[in-house]
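Sequence, please.
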């Protein structure tokens, strides 16, 4: 499965401000940015990402998936801390 396909599925299913997918050989990492994660537990946030990908996980097209979720504000801080100008 291509990373662009995973990005497309997530963008269509969820109201994400940004989404980034990296990986290959059925092992992927997702960074998802949206204010809809605000106030949700990490488990609920991950469930939101898993739900639209469940068929691909069940078919083993996606074997491993690491997920990092951020609100827009937390993503801005994360980028400033890890990518100083």
């Amino acid at each position: 499965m291509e990373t662009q396909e995973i990005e497309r599925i997530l963008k269509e299913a969820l109201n994400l401000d940004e989404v980034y997918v990296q990986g290959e050989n059925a092992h992927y990492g997702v960074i998802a940015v949206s204010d809809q994660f605000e106030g949700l537990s990490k488990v609920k946030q991950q469930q939101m990402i898993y739900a639209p990908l469940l068929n691909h996980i069940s078919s083993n097209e996606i074997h491993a998936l690491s997920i990092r979720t951020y609100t827009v504000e937390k993503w801005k801080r994360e980028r400033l801390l890890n990518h100083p100008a």
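The helical segments are 3-13, 42-58, 72-82.
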